[in-house]
């Protein structure tokens, strides 16, 4: 990533996560956010030392390379390695402050899940986050009542991203790989290049 200050007025989406591994639903969500918000860029940010994760993540080098493979060809997405490169505890506020310094005239939208919205008040310096970025919350469903319920459920200001996800999660993928349940239905949940990388590096064969 460049360290040069950009004086353009960009509309930037911030999409963080473990991406351990990235799957089709991750890609579909990025595409949905791009369609709704007309972003100039979406920074896909594999997390560094995620303080809220209860399990050890796969080595960052693998998660970054898989993210590059997964989002290759998805327009306007940028794999942003800053949280991994920063080292130490990974906080969203630090990422936003770095991006604000690089893009001082740009608008930021932070994409989070509905479960994260419910605990957003526990995030490190969450009030400062709200000053730096708009929250876009992914609501599972086609909108309508689901979106209205999500908006009513939290006092935190946010915008809803209605989203009908594929029936897949990263934990599902890891479990299927360990169990060697690699049928055609499983393959459809992954990009072939990501699946090949997982096999090449023998990932997810050990404990969860």
- Report the radius of gyration as a whole number of Å: 17 Å
Compressed to H and E, one letter per element, the order equals EHEEHEHEHEHHEHEHHH
State the CATH topology.
Answer: Rossmann fold
Structural class: alpha/beta
The end-to-end span amounts to 32 Å
**Name of the level-1 CATH class:** Alpha Beta
Shape by Cα distribution? globular
The share of residues in extended strands comes to 15-25%
Low-confidence sequence ranges: none
Q: How many E-type strands?
A: 8
Number of domains: 1
Describe this protein's structure.
The protein has 208 residues and is an alpha/beta fold. The chain has one domain (11-167): Rossmann fold (3-Layer(aba) Sandwich), CATH 3.40.50.620. Helices cover 41% and strands 19% of the residues. It is built from 10 helices and 8 strands. The protein has helices spanning 24-37, 60-71, 82-86, 92-102, 114-118, 126-132, 145-153, 170-179, 184-187, 192-200, and strands at residues 11-17, 41-46, 49-50, 77-79, 89-90, 107-113, 134-140, 159-163. The strands form 2 sheets. The chain has a 6-stranded parallel sheet. A two-stranded parallel ribbon has the order 3-5. Helix 1 (24-37) links the parallel strand 1 (11-17) and strand 2 (41-46). Helix 2 (60-71) packs antiparallel against helix 10 (192-200) and helix 4 runs parallel beside helix 6. The model has no long low-confidence stretch (mean pLDDT 88).
């Amino acid at each position: 990533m460049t360290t040069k200050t950009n004086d353009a007025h960009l509309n930037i989406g911030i999409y963080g996560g473990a991406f351990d591994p990235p799957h089709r639903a991750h890609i579909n969500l990025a595409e949905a956010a791009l369609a709704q918000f007309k972003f100039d860029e979406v920074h896909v940010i594999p997390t560094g030392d995620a303080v809220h994760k209860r399990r050890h993540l796969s080595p960052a080098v693998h998660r970054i390379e898989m993210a590059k493979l997964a989002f290759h060809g998805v327009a306007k997405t940028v794999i942003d390695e800053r949280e991994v490169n920063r080292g130490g505890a990974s906080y969203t506020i630090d990422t936003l402050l770095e991006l604000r310094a690089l893009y001082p005239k740009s608008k930021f939208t932070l994409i989070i899940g509905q479960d994260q919205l419910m605990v957003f008040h526990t995030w490190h310096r969450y009030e400062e986050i709200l000053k730096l970025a708009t929250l876009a919350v992914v609501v599972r469903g086609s909108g309508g009542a689901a979106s209205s319920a999500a908006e009513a459920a939290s006092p935190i200001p946010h915008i809803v991203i209605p989203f009908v996800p594929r029936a897949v999660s990263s934990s599902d993928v890891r479990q299927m790989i360990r169990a060697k349940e690699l049928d055609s239905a499983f393959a459809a949940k992954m990009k072939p290049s990501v699946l090949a990388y997982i096999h090449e590096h023998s990932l997810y064969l050990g404990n969860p």
